[in-house]
């Protein structure tokens, strides 16, 4: 969904090394976002809706795994995802020296 | 003590608490009024965001929507929570780093255009006003049901209360009252759910009870529920019935709509740091999930309780093993007093059509069900539970389960807390757009800080007045919150914010064209099926799945509108000159967290 950054080599007042570092930071951030969004889509649109028939043989309390993902599982995964992203980004901020 | 006195005491106590907080948290500067001086801890902000976000619709209506549709309405559960992932990953941290006060302000600065800012204000006003009318009506309904006052008196009391803490305290007052309101509403939602889960499944946690075993019969609760609803000729609860494409698009529209709602986004301006904004989105979702994982259990269990009330045999055996509930029991039995209470509101109605002294509840439109066979055998004349409103599933829950009177009073206070907290958040977004974007940003840029604070308070007061008047006479579009507010937030605000952060190439012209195209197409699609400006009878095509383009419902169309917005903005940007250097610098700077502290002094 995210449009790739289009102007990595534009002219600007910052010196090259600084900009390379901030580009590398941004690229690393985008990679983490892609991973999170892939999981986000997999549990909600995947397991809970489109792929539900494929995993319907796994029983969960009187129904199947897809129903569990639709009414409970995906929400729990969303929470874990956000906290994981926040923690991962704190580490990344420190690595690149852009933390607050 | 009578139920009325109990309600009055509990609701009165909750109101006294909110007013106390308002006096303690008065705002003295614009930074306090718009962003609580950016001093709110991430956990507190998470709680306030949860109350801000969970409206009368979440509290009162959602469980009922799930109860009568089952699996297909899981879209609301996923859609209204998944948006927080998008907020945490794609918007909140960057907009916090930007460090200003309103959403249109970001649009105006990033796209170096006052026009873009004004379009942002227009989108914000349509979205927020649609939304706030629903909250005000919710306040009126709850008051009239529990405090025996008229709808309009209830509305004015609610408006006066919001006036107290929103005009005095601005974001600061609203934040701390929302924290209190969250505690009231989550308590109110959870207590009946725990009792009902214990009664039906023996599980203390409703989240486990939903997937647990039905105590009286020893089979899985959901298996039992599927059995009785299909016996009565209704659709199987856990099965997928509607279009998969529409379900995906609707969920996505709710998710990106949620992430694009201005009153939710501005909550993330109140935390001290960028890393706090990310964490705070997580906390918000934790607090929201406390309600959103209970809601499907409340829905399923309330559906079960209602059905088993109508067919007492279903309680522990076969659905038709005993005759349906008798008219005499409904009219006299103390444990069925709730049916009489809700009959007076018109949300529940029955009629003994075949005159056999019993009320048979089943789906008479399904000729192949076990109920149809029973209908022939027992000479039934159609379904006799003629009206069951979705909304009573939550509100009547404590009465259906025979819980003590104080629980009912707490539920009433919870419903009011849900509606009032969301209304206050919306009113703040509206007044901020008027005083900061229109007055300070466009009409009178030289206004002093003191003057702007006064303007903010005056526009807040006017917004409350307008919302109350619209709540008294709700226009047609108020009922279309899901289609209109989420459709517009999804198709106009979310894409433009995301492109502003993730692309340096999108230009002023691109953003304006994208917003206008996304918004126009979405509104046109909604009007085509819902009528021009929602006037009944002016729709050009019938609002049915067969007439929808590719089976996409008007409420799901926000997703398509968002794609159009992205595409138009991309194409137009390619054809226009790159954004100026200072704008590219701005994008660079919001992408790194360091320096967000400086913005506090802004």
Automatic annotation (TrEMBL), chain B:
<comment type="similarity">
    <text>Belongs to the sodium:solute symporter (SSF) (TC 2.A.21) family.</text>
</comment>
<dbReference type="InterPro" id="IPR038377">
    <property type="entry name" value="Na/Glc_symporter_sf"/>
</dbReference>
<keyword id="KW-0812">Transmembrane</keyword>
<keyword id="KW-1133">Transmembrane helix</keyword>
<dbReference type="InterPro" id="IPR019899">
    <property type="entry name" value="Na/solute_symporter_VC_2705"/>
</dbReference>
<feature type="transmembrane region" description="Helical">
    <location>
        <begin position="116"/>
        <end position="133"/>
    </location>
</feature>
<feature type="transmembrane region" description="Helical">
    <location>
        <begin position="406"/>
        <end position="434"/>
    </location>
</feature>
<feature type="transmembrane region" description="Helical">
    <location>
        <begin position="478"/>
        <end position="498"/>
    </location>
</feature>
<keyword id="KW-0406">Ion transport</keyword>
<feature type="transmembrane region" description="Helical">
    <location>
        <begin position="281"/>
        <end position="302"/>
    </location>
</feature>
<feature type="transmembrane region" description="Helical">
    <location>
        <begin position="6"/>
        <end position="25"/>
    </location>
</feature>
<feature type="transmembrane region" description="Helical">
    <location>
        <begin position="547"/>
        <end position="572"/>
    </location>
</feature>
<feature type="transmembrane region" description="Helical">
    <location>
        <begin position="247"/>
        <end position="269"/>
    </location>
</feature>
<keyword id="KW-1003">Cell membrane</keyword>
<keyword id="KW-0915">Sodium</keyword>
<keyword id="KW-0769">Symport</keyword>
<feature type="transmembrane region" description="Helical">
    <location>
        <begin position="46"/>
        <end position="71"/>
    </location>
</feature>
<dbReference type="InterPro" id="IPR018212">
    <property type="entry name" value="Na/solute_symporter_CS"/>
</dbReference>
<keyword id="KW-0739">Sodium transport</keyword>
<dbReference type="Pfam" id="PF00474">
    <property type="entry name" value="SSF"/>
</dbReference>
<feature type="transmembrane region" description="Helical">
    <location>
        <begin position="182"/>
        <end position="200"/>
    </location>
</feature>
<dbReference type="InterPro" id="IPR050277">
    <property type="entry name" value="Sodium:Solute_Symporter"/>
</dbReference>
<protein>
    <submittedName>
        <fullName>Sodium:solute symporter family protein</fullName>
    </submittedName>
</protein>
<feature type="transmembrane region" description="Helical">
    <location>
        <begin position="454"/>
        <end position="472"/>
    </location>
</feature>
<feature type="transmembrane region" description="Helical">
    <location>
        <begin position="153"/>
        <end position="170"/>
    </location>
</feature>
<keyword id="KW-0813">Transport</keyword>
<feature type="transmembrane region" description="Helical">
    <location>
        <begin position="77"/>
        <end position="95"/>
    </location>
</feature>
<dbReference type="InterPro" id="IPR001734">
    <property type="entry name" value="Na/solute_symporter"/>
</dbReference>
<keyword id="KW-0472">Membrane</keyword>
<feature type="transmembrane region" description="Helical">
    <location>
        <begin position="510"/>
        <end position="527"/>
    </location>
</feature>
């Amino acid at each position: 969904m995210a449009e790739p950054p289009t102007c990595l080599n534009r002219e600007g007042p910052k010196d090259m090394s600084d900009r390379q570092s901030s580009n590398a930071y941004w690229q690393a951030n985008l990679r983490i976002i892609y991973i999170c969004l892939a999981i986000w889509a997999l549990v909600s649109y995947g397991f809970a809706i489109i792929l539900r028939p494929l995993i319907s043989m796994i029983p969960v309390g009187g129904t199947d795994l897809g129903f569990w993902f639709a009414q409970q599982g995906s929400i729990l995964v969303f929470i874990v995802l956000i906290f994981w992203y926040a923690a991962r980004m704190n580490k990344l901020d420190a690595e690149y020296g852009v933390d607050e | 003590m009578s139920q009325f006195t109990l309600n009055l005491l509990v609701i009165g106590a909750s109101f006294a608490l909110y007013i106390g907080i308002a006096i303690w948290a008065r705002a003295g500067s614009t930074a306090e009024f718009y962003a609580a001086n950016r001093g709110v801890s991430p956990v507190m902000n998470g709680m306030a965001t949860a109350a801000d976000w969970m409206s009368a619709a979440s509290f009162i209506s959602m469980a009922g929507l799930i109860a009568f549709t089952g699996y297909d309405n899981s879209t609301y559960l996923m859609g209204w929570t998944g948006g927080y992932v998008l907020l945490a990953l794609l918007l909140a941290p960057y907009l916090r780093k930007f460090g200003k006060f309103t959403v249109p302000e970001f649009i105006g600065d990033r796209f170096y255009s006052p026009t873009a800012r004004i379009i942002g204000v227009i989108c914000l006003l349509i979205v927020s006003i649609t939304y706030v009318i629903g909250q005000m009506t919710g306040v009126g309904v709850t008051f009239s049901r529990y405090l025996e006052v008229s709808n309009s008196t209830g509305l004015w009391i609610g408006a006066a209360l919001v006036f107290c803490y929103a005009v005095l305290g601005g974001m600061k007052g609203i934040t701390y009252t929302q924290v209190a309101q969250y505690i009231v509403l989550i308590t109110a939602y959870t207590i009946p759910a725990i009792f009902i889960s214990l009664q039906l499944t023996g599980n203390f946690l409703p989240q486990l009870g939903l997937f647990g075993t039905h105590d009286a019969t020893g089979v899985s609760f959901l298996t039992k529920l599927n059995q009785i609803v299909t016996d009565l000729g209704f659709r199987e609860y856990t099965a997928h019935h509607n279009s998969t494409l529409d379900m995906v698009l609707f969920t996505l529209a709710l998710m990106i709509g949620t992430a694009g709602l201005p009153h939710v986004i501005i909550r993330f301006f109140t935390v001290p740091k960028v890393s706090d904004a990310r964490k705070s989105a997580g906390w918000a979702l934790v607090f929201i999930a406390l309600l959103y994982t209970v809601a499907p259990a409340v829905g399923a269990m309330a559906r079960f309780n209602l059905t088993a009330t109508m067919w007492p045999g279903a309680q522990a055996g076969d659905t038709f093993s005993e005759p349906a509930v008798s008219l005499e029991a409904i009219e006299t039995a103390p444990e069925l007093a709730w049916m009489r209470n809700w009959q007076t509101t018109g949300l529940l109605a029955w009629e003994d059509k075949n005159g056999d002294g019993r009320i048979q509840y089943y789906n008479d439109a399904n000729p192949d069900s076990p109920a149809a066979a029973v209908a022939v055998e027992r000479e039934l004349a159609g379904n006799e539970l003629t009206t069951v409103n979705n909304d009573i599933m939550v509100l009547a829950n404590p009465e259906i389960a025979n819980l003590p009177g104080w629980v009912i009073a707490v539920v009433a206070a919870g419903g009011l807390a849900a509606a009032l907290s969301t209304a206050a958040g919306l009113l703040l977004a509206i007044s901020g757009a008027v005083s900061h974007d229109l007055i300070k940003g466009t009409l009178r840029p030289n206004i002093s800080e003191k003057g702007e604070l006064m303007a903010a308070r005056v526009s807040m007061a006017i917004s409350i007045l307008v919302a109350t008047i619209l709540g008294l006479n709700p226009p047609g579009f108020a009922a279309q919150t899901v289609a209109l507010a989420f459709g517009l937030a999804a198709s106009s605000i979310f894409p433009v914010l995301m492109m502003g952060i993730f692309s340096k190439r999108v230009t002023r012209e691109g953003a304006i064209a994208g917003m206008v195209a996304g918004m126009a197409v979405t509104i046109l699609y909604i009007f085509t099926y819902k009528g021009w400006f929602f006037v009944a009878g002016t729709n050009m095509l019938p609002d049915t799945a067969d007439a929808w383009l590719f089976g996409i419902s008007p409420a799901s169309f926000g997703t398509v509108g968002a794609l159009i917005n992205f595409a138009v903005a991309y194409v137009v940007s390619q054809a226009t000159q790159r954004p100026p250097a200072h704008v590219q610098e701005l994008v660079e700077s919001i992408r790194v967290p360091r320096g967000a502290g400086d913005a506090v002094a802004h």
